[in-house]
Amino acid sequence: MNEMTTSFAKAEALAAGLAKAPRGLIIDGKSVPAISGKTFATVNPATGQEICQVAEGGVEDVDLAVRAARKALENPAWRDMSAVDRSLLLNRLADLIERDAAELAVLECMDNGKPATLTQAVEIEGSIKTFRYFAGWPTKFGGETLPVSPRSGAKILNYTVREPVGVCGLIVPWNYPMSMAAWKVAPALAAGCTVILKPAEQTPLTALRLAELALEAGIPEGVFNVITGFGEAGAALVDHHGVDKVAFTGSTAVGKAIVRGSTGNLKKVSLELGGKSPQIVLPDADLDAAAASIAAGIFFNQGQTCTAGSRLYAHASIHDDLLARIADQAAQLTIGNGLDPSVNFGPLVSQEQWDQVNSYVEIGQNEGAEVMIGGGRPGDLADGFFFQPTIMTNAGRDMRIVREEIFGPVLSALSWNDADDLVAQANDSDFGLSAGIWTNDIKQGHRLAGKVKAGTVWVNCFNLVDNATPFGGFKQSGWGREHGRQAMELYSEIKSVWVNLS
């Protein structure tokens, strides 16, 4: 069989297995139905057809999961596990993800819509790297001795220790389901926490499979729980006094609600929220390189990316030429069902998301912007939630398509002449997640990078991430940082110990 036949055959086999019975919640190491008995359908975005039924967790289920996680936190098998053994478990989980990579890639494609070639390269390979990276931290993450000077003059030994923050509620979005889960689960487990993972209701399947693999790897029961369901379940997790920390990736509006909900026991909160990232192109930039990367930056994953470079600021002298090159890049995309290996542009995740993207295109037109390419459903794809790569020109700085996160494949193009006004426009946003700068003048690139208010600035590249470097946003793009030592710090508490040696 060729690669295309294999992918479709694997998807058919997976779907047949999933359809036999509803997928349960993972609580205390077991797959269980929701207490209410309710289930919901998860849908293939490329066809609009149901894949399977999934347990709809509610408040009571969250309470059971929190109790299981609390019990596991105090279980000597997890609490007293050596750093080396914890590292071995995380590496074993990475091995199992690697073993099942082909199946997981197809499963993610079916549930999310992203082409399977990309789920393999981004979601699955990225998750493997994340678990391997954080597997290295347990043996390296600790405290230090400090040279204190007490007023009494006594001989004092002062040292700090790192302890797990406790039970963590991890709420992840539908745009990168498996990799976003890995970004949170891996450092939490590396720090010795226990977790309740709440995947988005649109994309629950790989989260459930990840928890099953964690059990197979030998991670003790109750350490890794999964609650599938809707906003009620997420809110219950945020409100629960048995949860010590909530980590969330998603919209800024929901992030604000999480902050409000966390005040009951003042639980720790980290947030990776929305973005409206500027792509700044200077007149001396390599236009071919810029066009290719800008197109990828807005059209990759159908624009459903928090860092999507959705605001283009091109110098007036190269504006039209650059847009033509970006349009050429868009024309080379193959739209369709991601199980076909020739496809590199899939559907949006749901009808709701399609309606939102379409409404923004209409809003932009009503405000005076023009559709250069795209702007709707491809004519040859009647089923599924497909939306064309879209460029909107004549955009103004106060238009909603420029100021609000669309979360779809829509690029709003603006031109500029004055460099000072350019920086003001780029920073005139509620968001500050990321930015791209394109120039062959490296000094100017460094200067602009220093002036742009964003957590990540890419110069002559875009959308590069790595587990070793912190990722997060300024302003309403969030609190805290994913990756690196900074992520380990999010899942730990630091304790200062004073010992009188006099």
From TrEMBL:
Belongs to the aldehyde dehydrogenase family. The active site is at residue 272. Gene3D superfamilies: Aldehyde Dehydrogenase, Chain A, domain 1, Aldehyde Dehydrogenase, Chain A, domain 2. GO terms for molecular function: aldehyde dehydrogenase [NAD(P)+] activity. Keywords: Oxidoreductase. This is Aldehyde dehydrogenase family protein. Residues 38-497 form the Aldehyde dehydrogenase domain. InterPro entries: Ald_DH/histidinol_DH, Ald_DH_C, Ald_DH_CS_CYS, Ald_DH_CS_GLU, Ald_DH_N, Aldehyde_DH_dom. It comes from Aurantiacibacter xanthus. It holds the Pfam family Aldedh. The keyword Nucleotide-binding does not apply.
